[in-house]
Write a structure and sequence with these properties.
Blueprint: H1 15-23, E1 29-33, H2 44-52, H3 56-67, H4 73-82, H5 88-98, H6 105-114, E2 119-126, H7 127-138, H8 140-143, E3 147-155, E4 162-165, H9 176-190, E5 198-203, H10 209-212, E6 217-221, H11 225-232, E7 238-240, H12 243-261, E8 285-287, H13 288-291, H14 296-302, E9 316-318
Parallel strand pairs: 1-2, 1-5, 2-3, 5-6, 6-7, 8-9
Antiparallel strand pairs: 3-4
Helix pairs in contact: 2-5, 5-7, 6-12
Length: about 325
Amino acid sequence: MPIAITPPVPEAKSPMNITLQLAHKKRKIICFSDFDGTIFMQDTGHILFDNHGCGSKRREILDEQIKKGERSFRDVSEEMWASLNVPFEDGFEVMEKKLEIDPDFQQFHKFCLANDIPFNVISAGLKPVLRRVLDTFLGEKDSAHIDIVANDAQIAEDGSEWKPIWRHDTELGHDKALSITEARKEAEMRCEDGTIPLIVFIGDGVSDLAAAREADVLFARRGLRLEEYCVEHAIPYIPFDTFADIQREIVRIKDEDAKLTGGEGMPARFNPRANLWRRVSSKSAVPRYIVMSPRKEEKMFLWPEAFTELKTPTVELTEVDVSPNQA
């Protein structure tokens, strides 16, 4: 059954009290968040493509090709970015006018800074674009505290060429799950006394599925595709409407963890299944729950090694024990 977690609303606390509440507790929390549709309501790439590139009609056709599995995400993205013919500054002008930031994100970011919670953007977009947007909406000083894990880009000065430089040599270009796993390992090396950090992921759509499975705590924007997928597949998650909901929940989860573990060892909400779907016997052996995913786009994001444009192997089913005793 669905495992959406809807906690009681706690009594209001001032930012000062929240800072003091978290300060004495040892567990490291690391936040990763999608960008388009999560921090900002609109998609930065779509704004550029619709106004200075292939146009909305062609973009919708290309998006449909990804959903049907006719072309890979990376292949389609390269066509979209190549369609742009606009200098960076001119392209940013239209983004600045059309983008709308989550109304509580700036306060949430201040909360992270006050409580030493690293906040990272993890995106399939282009890092120069995302950095400029954050610099503008948050200010360069606050923006500098946010690490961006995304694809780089080569952008011609006259705007005649926009070329992504992909982080990973896969059909997705950026494997978000791999990036989170790498960050978790690095964070564990930095933690004292073998303490394992709590990994939080915040997202909204299908492209966040793989990364979501790597997190200890998952926040899904209410009413969008990531939440639908979590309900359909009984994946534990916490719905949110704005980042104020996330801030309240992180305070509650931190307090819960401190009571249960003293902030030491593994988090109370440690995800033992992280990377399960990548640790099966071979790359062609796909876990049953992925094979049974109804949409080709979901299969591609969950298991890019097998479900791509050029790779259509005979799929060997691998039994995955999802009984409560193994969860």
